[in-house]
TrEMBL record:
PROSITE patterns: FERM_1, FERM_3. GO terms for biological process: actomyosin structure organization. InterPro entries: Band_41_domain, Ez/rad/moesin-like, FA, FERM/acyl-CoA-bd_prot_sf, FERM_2, FERM_central, FERM_CS, FERM_domain. GO terms for molecular function: cytoskeletal protein binding. This is FERM domain-containing protein 5. SMART domains: B41, FA, FERM_C. The gene is FRMD5. It holds the Pfam family FERM_M. One of its GO terms (cellular component) is cytoskeleton. It is found in: Cell junction, Adherens junction. Its main location: other. The keyword Transmembrane applies. It comes from the Eukaryota. Signal peptide: none annotated.
Length: 575
């Protein structure tokens, strides 16, 4: 009896596992779910925990053992997607940025989007000019500490807050001046709304960067925004395509293609190369989902998309969910008392420490903090003042740029160029939060410092991406990095995998060709043996070869098949 009870308990434990989801305020939600539970079940649990109704803008992100990021599929089993053993750790993040954050129905939704964009600002994904950066930081300061109080905020108080990966004393003074003089009396809700409206006007709003290289080998960052597809190189946005202009997204191994039709029926093809085939597939899936969400009017218009040509079995993917217009219509129907919001601005954040008073507290061991800033692509800093652009087929660069929002107009000084300066510095987000790991040989080591000379600690976002497996850092007594080493690790042979894929494609094409030939031959035989009185069929029937085939092969085969059918019919009737 006891053994039966114990075995039943063990089986129940095997059917369940723990799952931890880190939320946008860095709090954690842990639950126990069934092994066959789908992603939608876990997502609904989190939204219920947050009292969130406008949930279509959000998603759950996880990282696989190869350090490749993924969005959790809601229609698939969680355990089959993770590629690792439980317990699982994931993150709740904004997946589709609202085109107009001010139009969101509920304040809880705006607050969560505010937390995401504040995180983007800190990790370098939301890059902007110095004047815009100062205003954004001042809004965060006003939302989290309130009005300036000389008794609570001594001289230089803004230096204790970190809003960006690194900033200067001049920028800190500008942030303090704006907070002291221009934002007095604003409530947290008003400051957050003003922050969202200001961020929405920036070129890098909603950018989730994918590191790639163009056909010339220049580093670039590809991203999908609420308004279209964008390419960032150096401190410029070199390409922008509206979603209505993008006609097709395609990938083959590491190569990613974007097909578009611009004004005057000009067709262009942009080609980029991802670090790995898995990264390229993730980029393609993100593009398919974003295009369906922002471009279509109804979810019934969503179609299954294939990454391959005829006869080659490529990846097939279909976006499952509502589109942006349906989400807005559904949000307008929400009628309830606004849920209470527990703002966590004064709580130290493990990955976005915008508010720190005195020594910063954290549950992450000191040895795990990153005291270095690893640049994403070798030589990216050299593009700071450069004007590299991606070669485009069948179109001039002058028509590659289209205004992405009604607030943006082409500067008169640009002269119609597709390039647009987005900041004073090169676009270089922290590698620990990129959706794709970069190649080991292309990483540069650069120590980021504060103006006072102290190391600027850029902490990794746990469970999203961190120090690559096997990487070891040695710290000195003052906490500085003395040496960054890497242990040996066997990597999958991408060339062998590509060779296997090529062989399978050739074999698949051969089998399909043989199948088509067999089907055509069967159809021809049926037509010639039928009673159809057509000229070319009469000519075939009169040939000696057909007569021999008819009497020696076809007629005996037909009699044998008819005999078997009669035998099976009699057998079934007797039973």
């Amino acid at each position: 009896m006891l053994s039966r009870f114990m075995s039943g308990s063990i089986r129940n434990l095997e059917r369940e596992y723990n799952c931890t989801v880190r939320l946008l305020d860095d709090s954690e939600y842990t639950c126990t779910i069934q092994r066959d539970a789908k992603g939608q079940y876990l997502f609904d649990l989190i939204c219920h925990h947050l009292n969130l109704l406008e949930k279509d803008y959000f998603g759950i992100r996880y990282v696989d053992p190869d350090k490749q990021r993924h969005w959790l599929g809601f229609t698939k089993c969680i355990a089959k997607q993770m590629k690792s053993q439980p317990p699982f750790t994931m993150c709740l993040r904004v997946k589709f940025y609202p085109p107009d954050p001010a139009a969101l129905k509920e304040e809880i939704t705006r607050y969560l989007v505010f937390l995401q964009i504040k995180r983007d600002l800190y990790h370098g994904r939301l890059l902007c000019k110095t004047s815009d950066a100062a205003m954004l930081a001042a809004y965060i300061l006003q939302a989290e500490v309130g009005d300036y109080d000389p008794g609570k905020h001594p001289e230089g108080y803004s230096s204790k807050f970190q809003f960006f990966p690194k900033h200067s004393e001049k920028l800190e003074r500008r942030i303090s001046d704006i907070h002291k003089t221009e934002l007095i009396g604003q409530t947290p809700e008003e400051s957050e709304l003003n922050f969202l409206q200001k961020a929405q006007e920036l070129e890098t709003y909603g950018v989730d960067p994918h590191p790639c290289k163009d056909v010339s080998g220049n580093p670039a960052f590809l991203a999908f925004t609420p308004f279209g597809f964008t390419v960032l190189q150096g401190n410029r946005r070199v390409h922008f395509l509206k979603w209505d202009e993008v006609t097709k997204l395609k990938f083959e191994a590491k190569t990613f293609h974007i097909y578009a039709n611009q004004k005057e029926d000009k067709k262009i093809i942009l080609t980029y190369f991802a670090p790995t085939p898995e990264a390229c597939k993730h980029l393609w899936k993100c593009g398919v989902e974003n295009q369906a969400f922002y471009k279509l009017d109804k979810s019934s218009q969503v179609r299954t998309v294939s990454s391959s040509n005829l006869f080659f079995k490529g990846s097939r993917f279909r976006y499952s969910g509502r589109v942006a217009k349906e989400v807005m219509e559904q949000s307008a129907k929400i009628k309830r008392e606004p849920p209470e919001i527990h703002r966590a601005g004064l709580v130290p954040s493990r990955s976005c420490p915008s508010i720190t008073h005195g020594p910063r507290l954290t549950s992450v061991p000191r040895q795990r903090r990153r005291a270095v800033h690893i640049s994403i692509m070798e030589g990216l800093e050299s593009l700071r003042d450069s004007a590299h652009s991606t070669p485009v087929r069948s179109v001039s660069h002058g028509d590659s740029f289209m205004p992405r929002h009604r607030h943006h107009t082409t500067d008169a000084g640009e002269g119609g160029s597709s390039q647009r300066v987005i900041s004073d510095e090169a676009y270089c987000p922290s590698d620990s939060v990129l959706p794709t790991p970069t190649a080991e040989h292309s990483l540069e080591l650069a120590v980021a410092r504060h103006p006072n000379g102290a190391p600027c600690s850029i902490e990794e976002e746990e469970s999203e991406a961190g120090t690559p497996e096997g990487q070891v850092a040695e710290f000195g007594p003052d906490g500085r990095v003395l040496r960054l080493g890497r242990t040996r690790k066997s990597l999958p042979n991408n060339e062998v995998q590509e060779l296997h894929k090529f062989i399978l494609s050739v074999l698949r094409m051969f089998l399909v060709t043989m199948g088509l030939l067999f089907a055509l031959l069967s159809l021809l035989i049926m037509l010639t043996e039928s009673d159809l009185d057509i000229a070319f069929l009469r000519d075939i029937r009169k040939t000696p070869e057909f007569q021999q085939f008819h009497f020696e092969y076809f007629c005996p085969l037909r009699r044998w098949v008819a005999c078997k059918f009669r035998w099976m019919g009699g057998f079934l009737i007797d039973k």
